[in-house]
Amino acid sequence: MFGLANPDRFMRVTRPLVGPLWVIAAVLLAVGSVWAFRVPEDALQGDTVRILFIHVPAASLGLAVYASLGISCLFYLIFRHSLADAAARAAVLPGAAFTGLALITGALWGQPMWGTWWVWDARLTSMLVLFLLYIAYAVLRGAFDDEGRGARAASVLGLVGLINLPIVKFSVDWWNTLHQPASLLRAGGTSLDPAYLWPLLVMMTAWLLLFLAVWLTAIRTEVVRRRVLAIRARRAREAQG
User: Fold this and answer.
1) Where does this protein reside within or beyond the cell (predicted)?
2) pLDDT tens, 57-115?
3) How many CB atoms lie within 10 A of CB 17?
């Protein structure tokens, strides 16, 4: 891991990975989507159960991506690795997109099940807080003319925001909420029928690989951007000297 903190080594190692990740993610997304439309209707939820195959991967990745962002912020604050800052910055947009999609699909799923688009229960509220943390990180990161100061301030926020992750995960266990308890990862094994479990696992794998493809591509782009800025700064100093 610390070896990959070297930007040159990171660029060399990840170069052959990005293309295959995009391809495999696209194939699994296509397979999972077709499979999701072929599963039987749920006895109580009918066709709305198919939202499961978008909502659950999006919500899970919203949490996982923020965890990667927070850990990257920790490494940046401790070791001042520029690549850690680039990794945190690259995680913001896909993380916010996944979390926003989870909120939207949750509302679409909740309306026919609960009779309302939104309730201020613990799970929904903590997910909204997670989305706002992504937005706050992006805003704070760009609020400084000095990129170093912006990176440090945003990293502190990103690290503090990790406190919200266990709240999101265990909110359905700690409080009485409308949101159903965990059905995939829980003590005693999953409660999902195999007809729904396997296509869901395919979709979750596809979305994870999609995130990795987006993340690595964004980090590599950020490394190139910083190199270009460094070259311009050096040329500007040479022109002045």
Assistant:
1) Cell inner membrane; Membrane
2) 999 999 999 999 999 999 999 998 899 999 999 999 999 999 999 999 999 988 888 88
3) 12
d(CA 208, CA 94): 11
Give the chain's radius of gyration (CA, Å): 20
Written as one letter, the residue type at 238 is: E
Measure the CA dihedral 109/174/189/184, to 10°: 30
Q: Which two tokens stand for residue 158?
A: 């990103």
Q: Partners of 46 in the beta sheet?
A: 42
Cα separation, 55 vs 61, in Å, equals 10
223-239 pLDDT per residue, tens: 999 889 889 888 888 88
Task: Assess contact for 44 and 199: CB atoms under 8 A.
Answer: no
Distance CA 175, CA 124 (A): 12
Q: Are 7 and 83 in contact (CB under 8 A)?
A: yes
Measured between alpha carbons, how far is residue 205 from residues 15, 56, 69, 119, 174 in Å? 21, 12, 20, 30, 28
The residue extents of the domains of the chain are 18-37+49-176+193-240
Positive or negative: CA dihedral 226, 21, 194, 100: positive
